[in-house]
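Page header: ASSEMBLY MODEL / two components / 230 residues total.
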Amino acid sequence: TQLLEQSPQFLSIQEGENLTVYCNSSSVFSSLQWYRQEPGEGPVLLVTVVTGGEVKKLKRLTFQFGDARKDSSLHITAAQPGDTGLYLCAGHSWKNTGNQFYFGTGTSLTVIP
Amino acid sequence: DSGVTQTPKHLITATGQRVTLRCSPRSGDLSVYWYQQSLDQGLQFLIQYYNGEERAKGNILERFSAQQFPDLHSELNLSSLELGDSALYFCASSVDPGTSSRNSPLHFGNGTRLTVT
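Prediction written out in full:
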């Protein structure tokens, strides 16, 4: 069962444009992480957001955690070809079985020079 | 470099066969997670081990099994392979201190690409 839905699933934009990726769930998470995956490699952590309403910036990337800690967004300003990749959100929960991570469906971004 | 090593990088085998994928976690990480990634299903959680013991199971088929050894490396065994098992298999590790750890992210290896013909 997929607990996290990402939209859009695919995105192709011109260099310099802005974009927003959404990650939505009906579940509450302890934290939410964003990863980027490039072809032939494993996902790499970009950021972790912990507090409801939290906003974190990483250069041209802005991440926001929803007030209810159920959803998140990733906004990229002035996209560059180097931003191309698969963006994955992951919700973190602590259960009696340990730390669990639930991944979203992914957003494949292509930035055209 | 994430510090997580997966071997082999590529594996081509026939239906009905059995294969073993290996993962060495990042130094100091006690938890190992296995994920399957295919084009139409995203990143699916298979199984997690913590310090040698199975911690959680996800959508893992009965034909699949895993273990974590005393040196903390892990192996994922896939048997009676079917065409639909073709996918990327990722191992990830985390520190996982044994309590809720919001800032204990996953570190992924570069995966094993399995092709079943």
